[in-house]
């Protein structure tokens, strides 16, 4: 099941992020900022056999359950002190995608234990169905043959390269454009 990100997903997202991008993982403040900027296009993939959350729909804030300490000099607002207690969270988060309304894929990752099961493809296909989207594109490390093959299989093409995008490594710009069928 794919649904929008909620604050209670943050612990799981951080675990996936650390395992997927050990050299340069995003931290919790980055994800909170991305959620603020792209609330409609920050999506998570939940284990389809997970129990569904209670229908209350309200955000539970518990000051005793805190996120990791904020960077020095910063504080958390009440909305950020969300209960992320894993024993109370019934859903299992297996992956996520964040993209802008104009189609730039900021990040996509799937938990290592759940890769090669079609989760990344489902997340991308959901992004591809975004109304009025003219293209999707992302940066991929030149050395990341697995990511290049994954995107290629879904219909993305390499369109350009950015030298030293990752510091000491080039990025390939990969892009997908929807096929427009004339009636």
End-to-end distance, in Å?
A: 32 Å
Assign a percent range to the helix content. Answer: 10-25%
Q: What's the story with the biggest beta sheet?
A: 4 strands, antiparallel
Number of strands: 7
Structural class comes to: alpha+beta
Q: List the domain count as a whole number.
A: 2
- What string gives the helices and strands in order? EHHEEEHEHEE
Contiguous low-pLDDT stretches (5 residues minimum) are 55-67, 77-89
Mean pLDDT: 83
* Number of helices, where a helix is a run of at least 4 consecutive DSSP H or I residues: 4
Taking all Cα atoms into account, the compactness measure Rg is: 17 Å
Shape, principal axes of CA atoms: globular
Proportion of beta-strand residues: 15-25%
Q: In what order do the strands lie side by side in the largest sheet?
A: 1-2-3-4
Structural account:
This protein has helices spanning 10-20, 28-37, 119-128, 145-154; strands at residues 2-4, 42-46, 93-99, 105-110, 136-141, 157-162, 171-176. By secondary structure, it is an alpha+beta fold. It has two domains: 2-116, no CATH class; 134-183, Alpha-Beta Plaits, CATH 3.30.70. The radius of gyration is 17 Å and the shape is globular. Mean pLDDT is 83; it is low at 55-67 and 77-89.
Spell out the key features of this protein:
183 residues, 4 helices, three-stranded antiparallel β-sheet, 7 strands, globular, four-stranded antiparallel β-sheet, alpha+beta, Alpha-Beta Plaits, 2 domains
Secondary-structure blueprint of this entry?
Layout: E1 2-4, H1 10-20, H2 28-37, E2 42-46, E3 93-99, E4 105-110, H3 119-128, E5 136-141, H4 145-154, E6 157-162, E7 171-176
């Amino acid at each position: 099941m794919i649904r929008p990100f909620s604050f209670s997903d943050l612990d799981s997202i951080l675990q996936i992020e650390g395992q997927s991008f050990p050299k340069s993982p995003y931290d919790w403040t980055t994800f909170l900022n991305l959620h603020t900027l792209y609330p409609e296009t920050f999506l998570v993939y939940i284990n389809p056999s997970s129990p569904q959350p209670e229908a209350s729909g309200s955000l539970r804030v518990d000051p005793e359950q805190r996120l990791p300490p904020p960077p020095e000099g910063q504080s958390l607002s009440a909305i950020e002190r969300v209960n992320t207690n894993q024993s109370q969270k019934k859903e299992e988060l297996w992956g996520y995608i964040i993209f802008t309304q104009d189609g730039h894929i900021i990040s996509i990752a799937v938990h290592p234990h759940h890769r090669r099961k079609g989760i990344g493809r489902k997340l991308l296909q959901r992004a591809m169905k975004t109304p009025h989207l003219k293209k999707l594109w992302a940066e991929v490390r030149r050395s990341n043959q697995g990511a290049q093959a994954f995107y290629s299989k879904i219909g993305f093409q390499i369109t350009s390269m950015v030298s030293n995008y990752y510091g000491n490594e080039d990025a390939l710009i990969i892009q997908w454009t929807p096929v427009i069928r004339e009636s």
